[in-house]
Amino acid sequence: MKRFIQLSILLLFCIPAIVLAQQTKVFTGGKIIPVSGEPIENGVMVIQDEKIIAIGAQGEVDIPTNAKKYDVSGKVIMPGLVDSHSHVGGGDGGDRSSALHPDTRILDSIDPRSDTFKKALAGGITTVNVMPGSGHLMSGQTVYLKLRKANRIEDMLFVDNPREEVAGGLKMANGTNPIGKGPFPGTRAKSASMVRELFIKAQNYKEKIEKADGDPDKMPTRDIGMEALVEVLNGERIVHNHTHRHDDILTAIRLAEEFDYRLVLHHVSEAWKVADEIAEADVPASIIVLDSPGGKMEAVDIKYKNGAVLEDAGVTVGYHTDASITDTRLFLRSGAFGVRAGMSREAALKALTIENAKMLDVQDRVGTLEKGKDADFIILSGNPLSVYTRVQQTWVEGKKRFDISNPEDRKYATGGYDVFERTTQNHNHGRN
Amino acid sequence: MKKRITLFLFALLLGVSMSSYSQIAVQADTIYTMEGNKIVNGIVLVQGDKIEAVGSASEIEIPSGYDTHKTSVVTPGLIDAHTVVGLAGIYNQDSDQDQLETSSAIQPHLRAYDAYNAREELVDFVLNKGVTTVHTGHGPGALASGQTMIVKTPYNTVEKGVLDSETTVAFTLGSTVGRYFDKPGTRAKGVAMLRQQFIKAQEYLEKQKSGEKPNKDLKMEALADVLNGDLTAMITAHRANDIMTALRLKEEFGFDMILDGAAEAYLVLDEIKEAGVPVFIHPTMTRTYGDAKNASFTTASKLAEAGISFAFQSGFESYVPKTRIILYEAAIAAAYGLDRETALHALTKQPAQLLGISDKVGSLAKGKDADLVLFDGDPLEYTTHIKSVIVDGKVVKK
């Protein structure tokens, strides 16, 4: 909100800018896949500033006379992709001093100029949940970002002020990645007990705050880790839990039920074994497509059919890149592989957009093309689930952020000499 | 070949029942034979473990009693030009990782044949993705990591599946070597160490030729085989300067060479072409870091434009995915400018030719091994399924 006020003040002093800022843009002639409803052949989408102001079939939508027109005949428009689990931006999380870092924010370590953002834009990604690694039981606070042009991380946040609003989730992990030598747990049971102990501490902290009832003398000493966990207990901060094996999946659900926090399961390699249990717990699953199983003990039973099985079971299912585990430039491919293994087309497209948005509590802003939502969209050369289709343009809040016809952008789609920085590989996946 | 004739005689003598002696007809909308143009509405007949006939449906009649399969598209069994399956296992634990020996940086005498686990789960996994033959062995990482081999994927022992027990010696140039070894510590030192060993091998050969019998040295035997042309040098090099170093070594020692990886090949296309060296191109989707930082989705298409022979490989992955799938890698290359039929060629006939096994596999023609992959659509499309895989006349996947 504050940013908006600043912008308005600025505009008052600068009349020509008002004309520019209120520029209305209309996209006609293409097929629009709004994801919120049936595809619209020969659709019309009108955007103003950063919002969609109208969308529908040709003839059903009023086109403002002063609108700048874009003919996208033969092309497909769909929502900007939402990646519910990514490691773009070169950030980090907790260090090796502890297995639990609820106090640590990845937003304090991200480089907004990282080329990984440009790579993601080339793949049509406009919203990301940037997570610290899985080598800890709690590696830190995640952050939900819009891939706006930015010099400061603040320019990319969904929220206006991260000190007053919850800017992301909390990354947790179970299974083998957080297991190691002290201070890390040595077993799965120890892992769960350490998490439970910390949440009991957070419950006590929360109780003290509630008892203080606004009296500053009675408030507990500020503890930023506890504050984040209280947000989790209050349902304001969602837990994003890395988990692979069927029993680890159920342990993640068990802990969420004990402490009544909101949970999203991540990776969920053996989801196909416990899909009904996941459905019964009403927990969403953010899954990954790996070309082959294995690479670690926990992932030997991963299946392409996870998406289809979860869809059939009625689970909210999304795909993620886990960048750079899978390539952000080819994020659409994950949905296509879901379809190959039996998922419906509709569910696959939702799994790349709105279902992921729900997992980040940003479904009112992004994930579908609807009147009033952010103008985050991509223009494709054709069927979103075909290998031959290319992302031609990526728009974030009414601004074009990627255009394949511009060589400076295109290079991020293909790679090549000196395109990527030397440090685009990887985050900590454990191995203590 | 000897093995097959014995097997055939054995079968005849025993009067093996029709069920184990294959008679299969595959009818398809499109057959990519890789021998000339694709056939529209064609038939492949399989008798025993060989292809009996290939042609259009108007020319070939399906004899009675043949097990008939109808499908959209048929290709030859796919050939992974360079992989580590069978050596680098699915679990990624010390006990199942045999793709790299780190006791010293030059060990060309190590044979993949002595390490290949035919029952490894990833071997079966790639078979289900249409890969019927693999050129597999030691991975990149050592200056000379060992001898690769060629094996068919459905068999339970290496002896049953092997097509060639020693095919290349795998070499690596570049910074990858430094990740696993203290010595060499630099690129230049690594090349010096390799040159010294090749010079020793030259002397070893000289002694043999002059009638002297040097003490048999397995390492020298392997390098002498490279110098003799009995084994090809497969050199993994990504950076343009490392590619040039590989070509310089080839020129100095006169060996047959395949360039492997070659992320920056697009910078030195003329040089590669002039040296007449074929390329096992890195997986299209390889991660852009380390020496392969400058990899591009368009390199395969640039090799094709330059007229350089190349084949697709799954390479080596230290984490996930534990193996790549060449069909998927070729698909991305096709999406980024490579002609689709050239992509299929680089999955079948081209690797067969480069590996010296094209008399048996890599294309569909009378007398060749009956290795086929049946698809329900464009083989390269994301949403297409593999319906069946046939190897040596047996349906191994349905």
From TrEMBL, chain A:
<keyword id="KW-0732">Signal</keyword>
<feature type="signal peptide">
    <location>
        <begin position="1"/>
        <end position="21"/>
    </location>
</feature>
<dbReference type="GO" id="GO:0016810">
    <property type="term" value="F:hydrolase activity, acting on carbon-nitrogen (but not peptide) bonds"/>
</dbReference>
<dbReference type="InterPro" id="IPR051781">
    <property type="entry name" value="Metallo-dep_Hydrolase"/>
</dbReference>
<keyword id="KW-0378">Hydrolase</keyword>
<feature type="domain" description="Amidohydrolase-related">
    <location>
        <begin position="309"/>
        <end position="402"/>
    </location>
</feature>
<dbReference type="InterPro" id="IPR011059">
    <property type="entry name" value="Metal-dep_hydrolase_composite"/>
</dbReference>
<dbReference type="Pfam" id="PF01979">
    <property type="entry name" value="Amidohydro_1"/>
</dbReference>
<protein>
    <submittedName>
        <fullName>Amidohydrolase family protein</fullName>
    </submittedName>
</protein>
<dbReference type="InterPro" id="IPR032466">
    <property type="entry name" value="Metal_Hydrolase"/>
</dbReference>
<dbReference type="InterPro" id="IPR006680">
    <property type="entry name" value="Amidohydro-rel"/>
</dbReference>
Automatic annotation (TrEMBL), chain B:
<dbReference type="GO" id="GO:0016810">
    <property type="term" value="F:hydrolase activity, acting on carbon-nitrogen (but not peptide) bonds"/>
</dbReference>
<feature type="domain" description="Amidohydrolase 3">
    <location>
        <begin position="335"/>
        <end position="396"/>
    </location>
</feature>
<dbReference type="InterPro" id="IPR032466">
    <property type="entry name" value="Metal_Hydrolase"/>
</dbReference>
<dbReference type="Pfam" id="PF07969">
    <property type="entry name" value="Amidohydro_3"/>
</dbReference>
<keyword id="KW-0378">Hydrolase</keyword>
<dbReference type="InterPro" id="IPR051781">
    <property type="entry name" value="Metallo-dep_Hydrolase"/>
</dbReference>
<keyword id="KW-0732">Signal</keyword>
<dbReference type="InterPro" id="IPR011059">
    <property type="entry name" value="Metal-dep_hydrolase_composite"/>
</dbReference>
<dbReference type="InterPro" id="IPR013108">
    <property type="entry name" value="Amidohydro_3"/>
</dbReference>
<protein>
    <submittedName>
        <fullName>Amidohydrolase family protein</fullName>
    </submittedName>
</protein>
<feature type="signal peptide">
    <location>
        <begin position="1"/>
        <end position="22"/>
    </location>
</feature>
